[in-house]
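Sequence and structure are no longer studied apart. As an example, we show below a sequence and the tokens encoding its fold:
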Amino acid sequence: MKKRLGFVSNSSASSFVIQIRRGSYDDQMEITSSDLSTEKIELLKECGFTPVNYSDPFRAGIRNLAKVLKDAQNKDSNYLGYWMTCNQDCVLTFLVSHDIPFKASVHYGHYLYSYDKGGDYVYVLRNYGVAHVSNPKELFDKEYKKYSMKQKPYKRIKKKEFVKDHDEHESLLMMGVKQ
């Protein structure tokens, strides 16, 4: 697990979406979940998750900061969202260790992480399209030749393995929770 403290120049950006109650979906991307308990919702809000009106983590992020702030006033939202640079591993393991279902766009949208409540696995899907749009020549030269025939575009990681190095205290600190 990568742990970064302070300013880093090779940062990453990630966004998370958690369905907190059943409702209609504004996208085709359905998040499988039952209603979360009030305690878990309050814990997520304490960690910086805010109400959002979309279920697709690829729509979150700094480009939509004004929308996120406006959504934060919407108490009836079915979703909570979170955006960050660096240290996404602390949020990923925190959510899985608390059995909170989520979808996350990780490392500038190059990966989708997904976890279902009560699930045995965390799913990781590589998004070759985002990498290609970012730099098609680099994708072909470095990524496609290296990975396309050798690696599957997805993997699943056992929950127990995924959270084995989880440090609750560190995760809460990284998410700005004063203890």
